[in-house]
Design goal:
By secondary structure, the protein is of the alpha+beta class. The chain has 3 domains: about 190 residues, FAD/NAD(P)-binding domain (3-Layer(bba) Sandwich); about 140 residues, D-Amino Acid Oxidase, subunit A, domain 2 (D-Amino Acid Oxidase, Chain A, domain 2, 2-Layer Sandwich), CATH 3.30.9; about 80 residues, Rieske Iron-sulfur Protein (3-layer Sandwich). About 25% of the residues lie in helices and about 30% in strands. Strands 1, 5, 6, 7, 8, 14, 15, 16, 17 and 18 form a 10-stranded mixed β-sheet that branches. Strand 21 and strand 22 form a beta hairpin. Helix 2 packs parallel to helix 5 and helix 2 packs parallel to helix 8. The chain is globular, with a radius of gyration of 22 Å. The model has no long low-confidence stretch (mean pLDDT about 95). The structure holds flavin-adenine dinucleotide and FE2/S2 (inorganic) cluster. FE2/S2 (inorganic) cluster (FES) binds next to loops.
Length: about 500
């Protein structure tokens, strides 16, 4: 693999060092156990603590090192082109509920950072979804009208500070951008103490349902509580078919220094390219995002290269300082799933499927989950209901996605690379006596072999050349080259294989 520009690390994680929280070392009992310390889990845990409940926040890795630590960190109710679709699929009330929930999520982030005095670079900004195509102008104008009718601070404009011509744009006023890791680490510190606790390095591997659901962790500990909230991005427990109702998409971000003016709003094009500025010592870093694809379905190096080309064509690039990527889950009808883990599951709740717009949506989910646990009704809960089947218009995308997973499940079993064909830094799926092995050759030429069967539901993993990981094309699990879990829904590592089993050819 030729080298890519920029440091391969998240700017957010690298610039927000925090004290680690302890591993859970003994069985404990709380009022609520929240699993996963991203925007959804941390916010939910804090709101519940403020309700007077004792909360355990349990994180497999580190606070905010999941998707929430690898985004472009716009906090907005504007989710590209959304409100026209919502009005036709969920009706006027559904679109208004989605908009109100997201505006409340945005307001919550602003309020908590002010109340707690968190230094997280929060700046109020307008957000724009723009098109460069005159043919799309009417669609964009209609989106502005539908968003306004849904109660959002929306207008149509052709006046943007981008250095290229724009045919039309939707503008939302008073949105925000921030440093998500600084924000979430400060919130987690607020959760810890007074009978509540945060645990890192503690992966949940099971939850037993009941009046007092019991969480089991990888290191064999148990936590009992009246309620469990599964906020692990993709729920590792799937008792309501979430994996059939959403799919994982990966996208890329470059942190770029440019010569000349840095655009000051937050932008996304209808083609999916995203821009925002971030203050850094001596100026502004421009975050350029995009090049989405279904996880495990593309050449990741090519995607980074395409994003670099886009940045260089559009700006006078002085340097590319950072690059990072993550994925999010796209619900088939466009609205996240928030509520019960399954129709029969009274005390286990879930929030997932944020469609790459998780800060306002995840904070809104925290408000909804808190209301549910506190026994209050919530005006947006039915629109986000996690057990819904979705509007009939979304059925075709549901069928297409599931056919695609079925095809990958069957066809990837025919994958046949050779060990000798693996270049240093590369990887391939190799057939052997035990089935298929995922084999990586490191820069020194050493081979590392693990089972190619994803421990979630058995799909065959795919080599990610840009990040040197094994990514599952079915539901978004990612594994390191030694087989350990990088992201769920899988909770168990890929089994180690000996290089001989993997069949040196
Ligand atoms: C490239 C890109 C850019 C984006 N930019 C934006 C943006 O500008 N604005 C926006 O609103 N959204 C954006 N998003 C989406 C946003 O990042 C996500 O929707 C959001 O971070 C999801 O938050 P979460 O809390 O659900 O998940 P996460 O942040 O992933 O948190 C889940 C946590 O659960 C932990 N976990 C997993 N399994 C277990 C287990 N078994 N036990 C214990 N812990 C576990 C994980 O380690 C993780 O820390 C972007 C997404 C992408 C792909
Ligand atoms: S993530 Fe579901 S099978 Fe791999």
């Amino acid at each position: 693999m030729q080298s890519l520009p920029g440091r391969p690390a998240s700017f957010w994680i690298d610039t927000a060092p925090g004290e680690p929280f302890p591993v859970l070392e003994r069985g404990r009992s709380f009022d609520v156990t929240v699993l996963g310390a991203g925007i959804t889990g941390v916010t939910t845990a804090l709101l519940l603590k403020r309700e007077g409940l004792k909360v355990a926040l349990i994180e497999a890795g580190h606070v905010a090192h999941g998707a929430s630590g690898y985004s472009t960190a716009k906090v907005t109710s504007q989710h590209s082109l959304t409100y026209s679709n919502l009005r036709s699929h969920f009706g006027d009330d559904g679109a208004a509920a989605y908009g109100a929930a997201n505006q409340a999520g945005l307001a919550l982030i602003v309020r908590l950072s002010e109340e707690l005095g968190i230094d997280c670079d929060l700046r109020r900004k307008p957000a724009f979804t723009y098109t460069e195509s005159v043919e799309e102008r009417d669609t964009v104008r209609r989106e502005a009208e539908d968003a306004l009718a849904s109660g959002l601070p929306a207008s149509y404009t052709e006046d943007l500070d981008l250095p290229w011509p724009v045919a039309g744009a939707v503008r939302f006023d008073d949105q925000a951008e921030f440093h998500p890791v600084k924000y979430l680490v400060a919130l987690a510190q607020e959760v810890d103490g007074d009978g509540s606790a945060v645990f890192e390095g503690t992966r949940a591997v099971g939850v037993k349902d009941g009046e007092w659901p019991r969480v089991t962790t990888e290191n064999g500990r148990t936590v009992t509580a009246r309620h469990v909230v599964v906020a692990t991005h993709a729920p590792f427990l799937d008792r309501a078919g979430f994996f059939a109702r959403m799919h994982p998409e990966r996208s890329y971000v470059l942190g770029v220094k440019v010569r000349g003016a840095v655009p000051q709003g937050m932008y996304i094009s209808t083609q999916g390219h995203s821009l925002r500025a971030q203050p850094v010592a001596g100026g502004e870093l421009l975050l350029v995002g995009g090049e989405s694809h279904k996880l495990g379905h593309s050449d990741e190096v090519e995607r980074y290269r395409a994003l670099e080309t886009y940045a260089r064509e559009r700006f006078d690039v002085a340097s590319i300082d950072w690059r990072w990527a993550t994925h999010d889950h796209i619900p088939h009808d466009g609205v996240p799933y928030v509520g019960r883990l399954a129709p029969f599951s009274k005390n286990i709740l879930v929030a997932t499927g944020f469609r790459k717009w998780g800060y306002a949506n995840g904070s809104a989910a925290a408000l909804m989950l808190t209301d549910r646990i506190a026994g209050r009704s919530n005006p947006w809960a039915s629109t986000f209901d996690s057990t819904r089947l979705g509007p009939p218009q979304a059925a075709s995308s549901f069928v297409k996605e599931n056919a695609n997973v079925g095809r990958r499940f069957a066809m990837d079993r025919l994958k046949r690379g050779t060990v000798s064909g693996i270049a240093p830094g590369g990887g391939a799926i190799v057939r052997d006596g035990l089935g298929q092995s995922a084999v990586h050759r490191d820069d020194e030429g050493r081979l590392h072999a693990v089972s190619a069967r994803c421990t979630h539901l058995g799909c065959i993993v795919d080599w990610n050349d840009a990040e040197r990981s094994w990514d599952c094309p079915c539901h978004g699990s990612r594994f390191d080259t030694d087989g350990s879990v990088l992201s769920g829904p899988a909770v168990a590592p890929l089994a180690r294989r000996s290089v001989e089993d993997a069949g040196a050819d």
